[in-house]
Design a protein that fits this description.
The structure is a homodimer. By secondary structure, chain A is α/β, with parallel strands linked by helices. The first copy, chain A, contains 13 helices and twelve strands. In chain A, the strands form three sheets. Chain A has a seven-stranded mixed β-sheet with strand order 2-8-7-6-5-3-4, with helices on both faces.
Chain lengths: 395, 395
């Protein structure tokens, strides 16, 4: 008989989506909602790369090569070389967003029933891709007290089983903003060698580091066969709608395998590739302004949060997220209340309850993720709202 | 230890790709290769829709809604309404190509180990999506003698097991070009009702029908919960690189489930959606010229093929493919020979051996698929080559 698949039932809804109807209802009541809940950057896309699309000149909008335009792959290799990441163009498969790169990794390296170990909290959509692939996410817990530093090696050892095939890391981290150090990457290196595991590195936020240099997993030596880089231009160039990512590995067998998945879906989007190719030629100081802007916002956000009674927010070293512990029992309820029952000067704020980023439901209940994707003025107003809301909520 | 996943090993390579190195070698020898092997249309993309992309005006290239821009979904619903297909915008999820629509269907309706029944021969990439989803493709054989009409109901009954969840049909068909009649669709309707199955309808070539009207599976009455339409603008508007398709169903539960998969990958490509939205507003006679061109080519191709000694090519009613039986033992060997060892006037032709479209390896050994994606002059020259090649090969 007709039924939904089990994996369809298991497939998690977006943890942020649950609150959307409440935000819409608030807007309908005339309340302005400051959105700190989503990772959609407000930074303007560089006009030069939008123009590259406008100037594109062809008669037929054809499929590209399944691995992506060779011209773009060669350019992208230049970008990595400039970042000190030694990658050749033929070690790159251009993907439809970073999402597809993750999917290709899960599909190529793991079978149904296999396991991937991820530091917790983690990007919620990893769960979705895991359900699609029929694999199990095991976690090693990181804590807000340590600023979400790499969990101790014992936590990984405890999570690793005979079915473990990979460790996955997002660096800098979504949702925590934590920037893993070279030393932490070296710890992971020892683990993947010892247990014969892949290391999946999601480095979507590579260019946004405020507490030192980014150390890419691709810079680890002696583990060429282990490391798969899952990348995207979405955040880097504020070009989320381009849907262009990359699956990168020096492991030829894995690359060839991922290529078969790439061939089945024919090709990544052509326009996005044109835009992304132009992006590599943006001036060398292109990221400076964006980074400075994000850093200013981070500083404002973190200092405002920590000045609120009972709030604790470790200072994130990268990306554009911060996690904060609030003086509430249940952040899900509080975030809904913010939208449903609170307004200050006809304004409120939308946050992402952290529960959606934890597999262990007993953790993170009083934490929220804040994306600093608003200018400092709006961010400051949003913090006013949150401060008043917490006072009112706890009265 | 590090290894490729079993599904990665099982994942089929593109059946056409095997010949690519031979085509490249031929080109390097200075031989012109007429490509009848791939479904990349040569028809120019309408300038008006390319212009729509050039005129797009926004500051931030944002994620779209996971189901696609609402403006595009509303437009697309208009397109279906005009085609007599009663679909509302909120029954549509915009996908990244038709490929993703197929993936969403497999993932939402079937679990690993479940089965889908497809008339054979079939579009080879269905195999790839089946491997990704861990499902099994069972076939009901159609034959070149009948022009690849719907296999008899007994063939379906024989293929259906307790694990069968869906029947899948591509109409008009890739690779055969066969246009299923309303009567044939009604036969499938009885089957899906009797066995409680989904009907997946891939209608990528809907607009290219030469032997009567297209009858969409969406027009079947009383099976709203059963039918899932998997569509794409790739061939319709010669816009393969846009990567825009659609997952469409009146089954709310399935739509909601597919939506969770859509949310995990965030959004379909923005530029492609802009182009596809503009395409709906192309003049009402837009398809006439393209259809007339394809029909002219089909007529030329089919008559030339059937005039060759020992060749049989049923007249396809739609799409831009034809299947032909050649007077050779093994079409794979012959197609390779065409590229490796044959040239007429320094020209040769590349065909797709049909073996890649059959699950049953004993079938289709002497058949090829020809895509008529060349203008009639080139097509005629390609037929000259093939005719001479067959004579030489069989000497």
């Amino acid at each position: 008989m007709l039924s939904i698949s089990q994996r369809g039932l298991q497939m998690p809804s977006s943890p942020i989506r649950k609150l959307v109807p409440y935000a819409e209802a608030a807007r309908k009541k005339g309340i302005k909602v400051y959105h700190l809940n989503i990772g959609q950057p407000d930074i303007e896309t560089a006009p030069a790369i939008l123009d590259a699309v406008r100037r594109a000149d062809f008669k037929v909008l054809e499929y590209s090569h399944s691995a992506g335009h060779e011209t773009y792959r060669r350019k992208l290799a230049e970008y990595y070389q400039r970042s000190g990441i030694d990658i050749r163009y033929d070690q790159i498969i251009v993907t439809t967003g970073g999402s597809e790169a993750i999917r290709f990794g899960f599909m190529s390296c793991l079978d149904a029933g296999d396991e991937v170990v991820i530091p917790e909290p983690f990007y919620a959509n990893y769960n979705g891709f895991a359900v699609e692939a029929g694999i199990t996410v095991k976690t090693a817990g990181s804590s807000i007290e340590s600023g979400f530093a790499l969990p101790p090696i014992e936590a990984f050892e405890k999570a690793i089983t005979p079915r473990t095939r990979a460790i996955m890391i997002c660096n800098p981290n979504n949702p925590t903003g934590y920037l893993y150090s070279r030393e932490e990457l070296e710890v992971l290196k020892q683990l993947i060698i010892k247990h014969g595991l892949y290391l999946f590195a999601d480095e979507a936020y590579r260019e946004f580091c405020y507490a030192g240099e980014h150390f890419s997993a691709m810079k680890l030596t002696g583990v060429d066969e282990h490391v798969v880089l899952m990348d995207t231009v979405s955040k880097r160039y504020s070009a989320c709608g381009a849907r262009i990512g990359a699956f990168i590995t020096r492991n030829k067998q894995i690359l060839d395998t991922a290529m078969k998945f790439a061939q089945a879906r024919l090709s990544p989007p052509t326009y996005g590739q044109i835009l992304a190719e132009a992006a590599v030629d943006l001036p060398s100081d292109y990221f400076d302004a964006t980074k400075a802007e994000y850093q200013k916002r981070r500083d404002l956000l973190v200092s405002r949060l920590n000045a609120m009674p009972g709030v604790f927010c470790p200072n994130p070293g990268g990306a554009f997220y911060a996690m904060a512990r609030l003086p509430v029992d249940d952040a899900d309820t509080f975030c809904q209340w913010l939208l449903e029952s609170f307004a200050d000067n006809n304004q409120t704020v939308m946050l992402a309850p952290a529960s959606g980023f934890y597999a262990d439901r007993s953790r993170g209940a009083n934490e929220v993720r804040l994306a600093y994707v608003l200018n400092t003025e709006d961010l400051s107003r949003a913090m006013d709202c949150l401060e008043k809301a917490l006072a009112e909520y706890n009265r």
